[in-house]
Design goal:
Radius of gyration: 29 Å
Helix content: 40-55%
Order of helices and strands: HEEHHHEEEHEEHEHHEEHEEE
Largest sheet: 5 strands, antiparallel
Number of helices: 9
């Protein structure tokens, strides 16, 4: 009897540990279960859904769900639900949901084909952090983080778009390099060099016309594209915006003069 009791106790402990592990995995993956009854429009969510999504409660009906969905996602969500129900298929849709006033939640709903004659049951996942990470990765691939300026590939694409839009417009394209940046890095440190680059980029943004396009090509090199009124206009344009760049700047408590070439 004792052997069977111990075996039963071990099975119960193993089952409890498995449930705890699954619950932990669901919480870390921000996963839960949802159920939708199209006949009544009723929505059900797992008990821990509100805690998982850090909100007071989730919409209990399709109407409420649509109402809390971002405007540009509503039609797509409704179409996904209607298609799944009408065709007896599952649903796989991602949309932005306003569960709190301060921050939207990007939710993914998935299900297999209807588990019953008229309802859907499946998993939901909060993919907000995942999408933010992906957006950040895309941003870092296209933009320079220090200056928030387009990198070379994006700059070329943006310039190509501008030229196609304004085919008859003349453009002035100038590469401007900070000379002596390595000397600043050596004497005052890498942070000081970054400050020089960031300040130089900010000054470029401030003095250039609004229709100019600026990018960071290399560590110490920027590129500026600006429309000009005539073929011989670039020289005049350069005079207008190159001179203010020569002002000194304060770096690490010291006044620093940075030369540049264009």
């Amino acid at each position: 009897g004792g052997r069977y009791a111990r075996a039963a106790a071990e099975r119960a402990q193993a089952l409890a540990e498995a449930k705890t592990t699954q619950a932990t995995a669901r919480r870390m993956a921000r996963l839960g279960v949802w159920r939708y009854d199209p006949a009544t429009g009723h929505l059900q969510w797992t008990a821990e859904a509100a805690d998982l999504l850090e909100c007071e409660g989730l919409p209990a009906s399709r109407e409420a769900l649509i109402e809390q969905t971002a405007d540009n996602d509503r039609y797509r969500l409704e179409a996904a639900l209607d298609s799944a129900v009408a065709g007896g298929r599952g649903v796989d849709v991602e949309f932005t949901l306003w569960l709190r006033d301060d921050q939207p939640t990007i939710l993914r709903l998935q299900s297999e084909a209807g588990a019953g004659p008229s309802w859907l049951i499946g998993a939901f996942q909060d993919v907000t952090a995942l999408r933010a990470f992906e957006d950040r990765a895309r941003y870092l691939a296209e933009y320079d983080e220090l200056t928030d300026l387009p990198r070379r590939r994006l700059f070329n694409r943006l310039l190509g778009d501008r030229i196609r839009q304004h085919g008859r417009q003349h453009w002035s394209i100038t590469a401007s390099g900070i000379t002596g940046l390595s000397r600043v890095n050596t004497l005052l440190g890498i942070n000081a060099g970054d400050q020089v680059v960031a300040t130089f980029a900010q000054r470029l943004k401030e003095i250039l016309p609004r229709n100019a396009l600026v990018g960071r090509l290399e560590i110490d090199t920027f590129v500026v594209a600006a429309p000009v009124a005539a073929v011989d206009g670039p020289a005049d344009t350069h005079e207008q915006w190159l001179a203010p760049l020569a002002r000194s700047l304060s770096v690490a408590g010291e006044e620093v003069f940075v030369d540049f070439s264009a």
